[in-house]
Amino acid sequence: MSPADQFGQLRTHLEGQVIGQPELIEHLLIAILADGHLLVEGPPGLAKTRAVQALANGIESDFHRVQFTPDLLPADLTGTDIYRPETGEFQFQPGPLFHNLVLADEINRAPAKVQSALLEAMAERQITVGKTTYPLPPLFTVMATQNPLEQEGTYPLPEAQLDRFLMHLNVDYPNAETEQKILRLNRQESVAGDGVPLTKLSQEKIFQARKEVLNVYMDEAVETYLVALIIATRQPQHYDAELAHWIQVGASPRATIALDRCARARAWLNGNNFVSPTDVQAILPQVLRHRIILSYEAEADGIQKDTVIERILAQVPAV
């Protein structure tokens, strides 16, 4: 079975496990395909954690969930050297970050020193304890959740930390019809238990799929359009005076790379062998949402980042 077929099966399985969140499911798979990390933000009870756990159940990988709290220490993530009396030596005990798929639940509840340890893992794919640096597994993805409602006892993620996330996805409440389906699924699982896919997606297939994603064709005109969208965040005055008033800091070249990878992954996931402007437009909010900084005036006026991104899409001519 080809990687595309197996990813299709995994997608179908996830849609059966997580009702009413097709965008969340799509972006979880895109993060795996683009070899990046995903930040999911939304109120409690919207299946953020469930979706990541369902993804882990469908992949041949080691999964670990870390509940972030204010008293968490860097060693709780990275691991630490433990003294062995029988040998008189210190032995390194790996922490949760040495798993393939790490769920960082409520990531904004951890203090800065913990964020610093996580930053090295996400950016460099390695962990440094004392004087020794340990490489992380080839398949390593951090899926982090964040609750926007409760701010007491939280630590806002610094820009450098946010920039390491490939995408920032917002999830919202389902409609009444979807809510009824969720209710029925919950009752069904209470009787029969969770369903498990018959065939788990192997890491070999994931790496093969990533190579295919990088080979998805992107026309030069689409590439120029992609770059223009990012440049518009840095030079908004060339497009719109109000846009220039809203944006204080634009996106870095890391955003360009992320947008390219995610657009290719989205096209591949939907069965296309080329990237269209629609792929770029669909993924732009998730790539830019955490990478642009609004001006004080824009925040005072209640301007949302999604509004700014919509204005960029409207102002930059598509191919």
Query: What portion of the residues fall into strands of 2 or more residues?
Result: 15-25%
| CATH topology term of the largest domain | Rossmann fold
Tell me the radius of gyration.
Answer: 21 Å
Helix content: 40-55%
Task: Tell me, briefly, the overall form.
Answer: globular
> Structural class of the helix and strand makeup?
alpha/beta
Q: How many distinct beta strands?
A: 11
Query: What count of helical segments does DSSP give?
Result: 14
CATH class of the largest domain: Alpha Beta
Give the count of structural domains.
2
CATH architecture of the largest domain: 3-Layer(aba) Sandwich
Which regions are unreliable across 5 or more consecutive residues at pLDDT < 50?
Answer: none
Strand order of the largest sheet: 2-5-8-1-9
Main sheet attributes: strand count, strand direction, barrel closure: 5 strands, parallel
CATH superfamily of the largest domain: P-loop containing nucleotide triphosphate hydrolases
- Oligomer class: single chain
Average pLDDT confidence is 89
Structure description:
With 319 residues, this protein is an alpha/beta fold. The chain is globular, with a radius of gyration of 21 Å. It has 14 helices and eleven strands. The longest helix is centred in the middle third of the chain and has 17 residues, at 176-192. The relative contact order is 0.14. The strands form four sheets. It has a five-stranded parallel β-sheet with strand order 2-5-8-1-9. The protein folds into two domains: 3-189, P-loop containing nucleotide triphosphate hydrolases (Rossmann fold); 216-315, Orthogonal Bundle (Helicase, Ruva Protein, domain 3). It comes from Aliidiomarina taiwanensis. This is AAA family ATPase. InterPro entries: ATPase_AAA-3, CbbQ/NirQ/NorQ/GpvN, ChlI/MoxR_AAA_lid, P-loop_NTPase. Belongs to the MoxR family. Keywords: ATP-binding, Nucleotide-binding.
